[in-house]
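Recall that a protein's primary structure is simply its ordered list of amino acids. Everything else, from secondary elements to tertiary packing, is in principle encoded there. The following example makes that idea concrete.
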Amino acid sequence: MTNEFEHMKLDRQLCFLLYASSREMTKLYKPLLDELNITYPQYLALLLLWEHEILSVKKMGELLYLDSGTLTPMLKRMEQRGLITRERSPEDERSVIVKLTSSGAEMKERASCIPQTMLAQTNLPAEELERLTHVLGSLLASMTKKNRK
């Protein structure tokens, strides 16, 4: 292979490194989330609700970068499990409001060790993880800004 095509190697592709890293990270989460009987996307939704308490489905979709076709079935399953409630907004019937149930709120305590456990599993120094988080946040913001124009 000539140097002319060095940029075409798989391990030089940002998209591949993000994809593979995301898959590996999700695999590391799996045993921790299995103990709570929730999926990774459900965990992300719970993180939002633990932070905000009440959100519209639309706002959750924006914050999670999920469309309603993906988010709504997941929220229905979470409601069936007794983790959340969904109800029409009294101000705007088109809007659905999502709230934690007491079970959903209580799960926060059981899940509180997950972030530290995951950080430890990366085997990277805290400063490097903080820098990586900042860079990925900037990348996401840059890509979403460009796509929304």
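The CA atoms of residues 131 and 137 lie 10 Å apart. The mean pLDDT is 93.
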